[in-house]
Specification:
By secondary structure, the chain is α+β, with helices and mostly antiparallel strands. It is built from 7 helices and 11 strands. It has 3 domains: about 1-55, Wheat Germ Agglutinin (Isolectin 2), domain 1, CATH 3.30.60; about 60-105, Wheat Germ Agglutinin (Isolectin 2), domain 1; about 130-210, His-Me finger endonucleases (His-Me finger endonuclease fold).
């Protein structure tokens, strides 16, 4: 007698990998006789990818190598992207094959529109995604451009009481800019956008800045007369 779709001793046959698994390995489905989906959770995850190959379930890492499901070559684990959903912790396609498939997909008409609409729908379902991505970009930008962490920025911000180092005013609707020496790359402090632009416009020439101060003093005295 066929055991397909039936629960026997708390176990059920998966319609994809054809393994007999505990009922906990299956998702629920109200309109099914067994009350469970026909394929196990692992197989359903795999089916959601570009191509479903039942042999994916049997991929293993042996001696630090894994077989690529596309080119069929045994490659070092470093040749595969990481994946939390796969039991090996790695993608089943190697990086080279993955890149090739991606390029092929992007070359198809309408692929950009599909990708854009998919990304938009994801951001709508996950409102915290943009905030999280902005935080990652900010962190990477600080380390790459100034060699400091967000924690170090926050410390400087607290020391300056949240105001510009030169004019003593807070920044409006944005963060204080990181000022650094262009010769030594050493971070000097946090400035508002206006003061940072002034330094940039005069190319940090102290003589020019002193001349500007004397110019303002001179005309202020003239105005007082």
């Amino acid at each position: 007698m066929s055991t397909k779709g039936k629960i026997i001793d708390g176990k059920k046959l998966c319609s994809c990998c054809e393994e007999i698994l505990p009922v906990s390995a299956f998702g629920k489905r109200k309109d099914a006789k067994s009350g469970l989906k026909s394929a196990c959770r692992k197989c359903r995850v795999l089916r959601g990818r570009f191509d479903y190959i039942p042999e994916y379930n049997h991929k293993e890492v042996i001696d630090g190598k894994q077989e690529c499901s596309i080119c069929k070559l045994d490659l070092p684990v470093g040749s595969f992207h990481k994946s939390k959903s796969n039991h090996t912790g790695l993608e089943y396609r190697c990086k080279e094959c993955n890149s090739k498939r991606t390029r092929e997909w992007r070359s198809k008409p309408g692929s950009k529109e599909i990708a854009a609409s998919t990304a938009k729908a994801y951001r709508k379902r996950n409102p915290e995604y943009r905030k999280r991505q902005n935080g990652i970009r900010r962190k990477n930008s600080m380390i790459r451009n100034y060699g400091i962490t967000i924690g170090e920025y926050d410390t400087m911000f607290e020391i300056q009481n949240g105001v510009c180092k030169t004019c003593g005013l807070p920044e409006i609707n944005s963060r204080l800019s990181i000022d650094h020496c262009h010769e030594t790359d050493k971070v000097r402090g946090l400035l508002c956008r206006r003061c940072n632009m002034v330094l940039g416009n005069v190319e940090e020439n102290q003589e020019t800045l002193w001349n500007m101060i004397e110019y303002l003093k001179e005309h202020k005295l003239e105005g007082a007369k």
